[in-house]
Design goal:
Layout: H1 8-17, E1 24-29, E2 33-38, H2 46-50, E3 57-61, E4 64-68, H3 73-84, H4 102-114, H5 118-136, H6 145-159, H7 161-172, H8 177-187, H9 190-196, E5 203-204, E6 207-208, H10 219-238, H11 244-285, H12 287-304, H13 311-321, H14 325-347, H15 351-365, H16 370-377, H17 381-401, H18 427-450
Antiparallel strand pairs: 1-2, 2-4, 3-4, 5-6
Helix pairs in contact: 1-3, 4-7, 5-6, 7-8, 7-10, 8-10, 8-11, 10-11, 11-12, 11-13, 12-14, 12-17, 14-15, 14-16, 14-17, 14-18, 15-16, 17-18
Domain PTS EIIC type-1: 108-455
GO molecular function: kinase activity; protein-N(PI)-phosphohistidine-sugar phosphotransferase activity; protein-phosphocysteine-trehalose phosphotransferase system transporter activity
InterPro entries: Glu_permease_IIB (IPR036878), PTrfase_EIIB_Cys (IPR018113), PTS_EIIC (IPR003352), PTS_EIIC_1 (IPR013013), PTS_IIB_1 (IPR001996), PTS_Sugar-Specific_Components (IPR050558)
Amino acid sequence: MAKKQDYTQLAKEVVEAVGGKENIISVTNCMTRLRFVLKDDNIPSEEQVKAIKGVKGVMNKGGQYQVIIGTHVCEVIKDVKMVAGLGDEAPVKTDDGKKDTLFNRFFKTISGCIMPMIGPMIAGGILKGILTIFVTVGMLTKDSGTYQLLYAAADALLYFMPIVVGFSAGKVFGCNPYVTATIGAALVYPSLVTAVSGETALTFLGLPITAATYSNTLFPILLASYVASLIEKGAKRIIPQMIQLMIVPLIVLAITVPLSWLAIGPVMNMVSEVLSSTVLGIFNFSPLLGGILFGAFWQLMVLLGLHAAFVPVLINNIVTLGADPINAVLGLTVWALAGVSLGYALKVKDAEKRAVGFSGMASCLCGVTEPTIYTIALPQIKCFAAAWIGGGISGGILAALGAKMYSMGGDGLFRIPSMINPAGMDISFYGFIACALVAFGVAAALSYILADPNK
């Protein structure tokens, strides 16, 4: 059994460098970064934070002070929370009383609500792809118990997304997360879903309930949770504390659940459809141009730490439309950076630098690009340009082919199962593999030519 790494010292140094626990409002993590919400983000010294052993870089974007750690960040954050005195069950505060831009507030909210479920969502997407392969080659049938059990594991989070997101949103909005999860459960309650979809119209106090389904939806529960938080805060001001435990949730549920079915859900479903149609309309106006731009410059958004703000749009495309051409292209940018790592590793003579290149390639193929970005692409901007060219060329080709991504999946090698059409492998699957090799090969060749072996 591998010995568990102790990150206590790293956590102490990071917490101290960002201004101490007194300066920390909250901290979350994504795939590779600690994302701090600080009272004063002018206190940390970027050079001091970067100098800490185990820190790969720093970004201060989107209202968050982001400390780049690596794929083991999920272990590091436990010690950071312990050192900073933040419990796992503490609310994820996103409003510290400071004036902030609307985008930054939106970014913090989305990160807090969605990031906790990214891991299992990606796992489900990979599992769906594997099951499709097994069905295609005849190893399983869709009516077999094995398939149905594993498909339930793969699809459960998306189907019950209102419950999972409701719980996270309750923490973010500073209200009871079990109440907001219950609101999410009411949106997918089986007998109610069946009733509103029946031939006889269902009403609430004489008001018609729109026939709709909220499984696999994101935005209705986000707004419903925010409304619930306002109702809870208002109820606590007027309800005596000794009976708040029972009466406040009663009030919140009795108001928010009907309101969600009557107004919030239908309105947010419309917003969701408009959002997806608008984004895809822009992309479809010129798939070739869109593929080139997204394929070339998506990793710049990763570099700036702003990519998480696009996650709800990408998820929304998958859950409402069943497929997403934009995310298909984004997956190629990882292969381009893997190629950059290989080209760099083959060009340099120093053994340690070569090891950095090969390890960066392995990291990219596993879906994590930050090591390559910060150790190779940024120090040698020409190598970054090689990735832009490789990603842009391959992205344009894939978009022109009309390829789509069918489930939320990982990146690198783990993106491939998500490109499998549930109806059977088609151009999305074969085209992605071909374009990934193009991105990898073009970027590797250019990186080999452009890399400076002496840097």
